[in-house]
Specification:
Blueprint (H helix, E strand, L loop, with lengths): L8 H6 L4 H21 L13 E13 L8 E4 L7 E2 L2 E2 L18 E11 L5 H10 E7 L2 E7 L43 E3 L5 E7 L12 E13 L3
Length: 236
């Protein structure tokens, strides 16, 4: 069937096309999209056939390196789920919403539209600068890297900003406190971002030169990695 080249059925009819032809074209297009999504496992649900909750979501994970403790040359986000221990911190829902090691609990899958690094605003500027200058990140899905770069290229889009004249008070962050100030993975022929399929492993590696956060009066290296995107999960 010839493609009418219009955005809506109403546009096609208004431009002189037969109504039946316009409706048929629309149905063909919708069916084609549905087949494409099913082929990529994006519209399937093993709990309830053809049913899924699809909603905006954040996957988040915190790494907290205590003051006076070396970071090591690699730190990995999304490898220690709730109940696990990383750098002496037992993770709760406050630190992460990951429930399994490096993957989502079935039957969830996730379209990652952006990746953000957020530093706690009580950190010392010197420790934030050391992290920025010493490390880069790699976003892995299965055995492939889907994003990489220095930490300052992945702003948090949140946090405290401003200044103070009071001695001993300061707040520092990565980027500006604006939800639009983030890296968007959706571009060109990739309108959904980076897709984490059901059962696929994923992680964000922080790699570089080890340093030790200041012992006094520091608060350690305390930062989050946030994956923003669209979550698909089973109907409950």
């Amino acid at each position: 069937m010839k493609n009418l080249g219009f955005d809506t059925i109403a546009d096609a009819i208004e431009s002189g096309y037969d109504e039946k032809l316009a409706v048929a074209q629309s149905k063909q297009m919708i069916n084609g999209i549905d087949r494409m999504m099913r082929k990529g496992h994006r519209a399937t649900n093993p709990i309830e056939a053809n049913k899924a909750d699809i909603l905006p979501w954040y996957l988040y994970d915190e790494i907290n390196v205590p003051s006076g403790t070396s970071t090591g040359v690699e730190m990995d986000f999304f490898t220690v789920p709730q109940g696990g221990t990383q750098f002496s911190t037992v993770k709760t829902k406050q630190q992460t919403n990951l429930e399994e090691v490096s993957k989502l609990s079935a039957p969830k899958h996730f379209n990652t539209t952006s990746l953000m690094i957020y530093f706690a605003n009580n950190m010392l500027l010197a420790d934030i600068s050391s992290a920025m200058n010493n490390f880069w990140l790699e976003f892995w899905i299965s055995d492939k890297i889907y994003a990489e770069g220095p930490l300052f290229k992945f702003p948090g889009g949140a946090g405290v900003s401003g200044y103070t004249a009071v001695s001993g008070q300061a707040a520092w962050g990565n980027g500006i406190a604006n939800p639009c100030a983030v890296v968007d993975f959706r571009m060109g022929d990739n309108p959904i971002g980076h897709h984490i399929l059901q059962g696929q492993t994923f992680k964000v590696k922080i790699l570089g030169t080890a340093f030790t956060p200041a012992a006094t009066p520091g608060n350690g290296l305390n930062f989050y990695c946030i994956l923003e995107g669209i979550l698909s999960r089973g109907v409950q």
